[in-house]
Amino acid sequence: MDSRYEILRRGGGFSGGSAGGSPALTGAQSRRRKIPPRPADHKLQVIIIGSRGVGKTSIMERFTDDTFCEACKSTVGVDFKIKSMELRGKKIRLQIWDTAGQERFNSITSAYYRSAKGIILVYDITKQETFEDLPKWMKMIDKYASEEAELLLVGNKLDCETDRVITRHQGERFAARIAGMRFCEASAKDNFNVDEIFLKLVNDILNKLPMEASNSELCNSILSLQPEPEVPPELPPPRPRCC
Ligand SMILES: Nc1nc2c(ncn2[C@@H]2O[C@H](COP(=O)(O)OP(=O)(O)OP(=O)(O)O)[C@@H](O)[C@H]2O)c(=O)[nH]1
């Protein structure tokens, strides 16, 4: 079959093409359509957990779609989004699992922990109980997640500074007690530190991949979504995992 016909047929019905007498593609269009998308160098899964209403969905949607919903529905079970990103010259296909904060979904959500290479544990800096729930979430991590998973604690809703009840120091102290856990505060609403959460987590995950460790690209790290800083100042340097 004529390869040009193949291209037209696959593209048929899309975006305002005329019904009869298909115009020939220009050389440039033809070339553009033939190029398949570059396959991902790495496919990674990360999971977002934390109590109800802390902003897990909002963080995910701010990162994947740059949107924020003032009154979104509670997640039922598990939802996910995919975002491709460039990091250190590698194409990363990131699958983000957004879990329900309600306890009654724990039996469903726990099934997603095992394959996650990174875990984002979120609390709300304006809600004491979401911080007090953290040990409960750590138990879930200990029980269901891989020991190799990178951990990041996020105090969300930083834009609500006047309603803050959990100090930054409390968040830092909690994270410091968990071997290898990083910490930052963020605002999904104001889009503060959201890209950094994912970039930092993926960067840490890549550092653990055996192939990557010997790769000289490590010396020239570039986080493509954010030209600078490479390591956000909010995040402390990694600590070795030990108890
Ligand atoms: N002010 C402010 N509100 C936020 C922020 N992030 C989320 N919210 C609001 O908090 C509420 C809950 O947000 P969600 O993203 O649905 O929270 P969730 O953790 O996914 O909730 P569950 O699915 O029930 O577990 C919504 O009304 C959001 O608009 C933030 O950074 N600042």
From TrEMBL:
<keyword id="KW-0653">Protein transport</keyword>
<keyword id="KW-0458">Lysosome</keyword>
<dbReference type="Pfam" id="PF00071">
    <property type="entry name" value="Ras"/>
</dbReference>
<keyword id="KW-0378">Hydrolase</keyword>
<dbReference type="InterPro" id="IPR001806">
    <property type="entry name" value="Small_GTPase"/>
</dbReference>
<feature type="region of interest" description="Disordered">
    <location>
        <begin position="11"/>
        <end position="37"/>
    </location>
</feature>
<dbReference type="GO" id="GO:0006914">
    <property type="term" value="P:autophagy"/>
</dbReference>
<keyword id="KW-0333">Golgi apparatus</keyword>
<keyword id="KW-0597">Phosphoprotein</keyword>
<keyword id="KW-0460">Magnesium</keyword>
<dbReference type="GO" id="GO:0005776">
    <property type="term" value="C:autophagosome"/>
</dbReference>
<dbReference type="GO" id="GO:0015031">
    <property type="term" value="P:protein transport"/>
</dbReference>
<keyword id="KW-0547">Nucleotide-binding</keyword>
<keyword id="KW-0472">Membrane</keyword>
<keyword id="KW-0449">Lipoprotein</keyword>
<keyword id="KW-0072">Autophagy</keyword>
<dbReference type="GO" id="GO:0003925">
    <property type="term" value="F:G protein activity"/>
</dbReference>
<feature type="compositionally biased region" description="Gly residues">
    <location>
        <begin position="11"/>
        <end position="20"/>
    </location>
</feature>
<dbReference type="GO" id="GO:0005525">
    <property type="term" value="F:GTP binding"/>
</dbReference>
<keyword id="KW-0968">Cytoplasmic vesicle</keyword>
<protein>
    <recommendedName>
        <fullName>Ras-related protein Rab-12</fullName>
        <ecNumber>3.6.5.2</ecNumber>
    </recommendedName>
</protein>
<keyword id="KW-0479">Metal-binding</keyword>
<dbReference type="InterPro" id="IPR027417">
    <property type="entry name" value="P-loop_NTPase"/>
</dbReference>
<keyword id="KW-0342">GTP-binding</keyword>
<keyword id="KW-0967">Endosome</keyword>
<comment type="similarity">
    <text>Belongs to the small GTPase superfamily. Rab family.</text>
</comment>
<dbReference type="GO" id="GO:0005765">
    <property type="term" value="C:lysosomal membrane"/>
</dbReference>
<dbReference type="GO" id="GO:0046872">
    <property type="term" value="F:metal ion binding"/>
</dbReference>
<keyword id="KW-0636">Prenylation</keyword>
<dbReference type="InterPro" id="IPR050305">
    <property type="entry name" value="Small_GTPase_Rab"/>
</dbReference>
<dbReference type="InterPro" id="IPR005225">
    <property type="entry name" value="Small_GTP-bd"/>
</dbReference>
<dbReference type="GO" id="GO:0055038">
    <property type="term" value="C:recycling endosome membrane"/>
</dbReference>
<keyword id="KW-0813">Transport</keyword>
<dbReference type="GO" id="GO:0000139">
    <property type="term" value="C:Golgi membrane"/>
</dbReference>
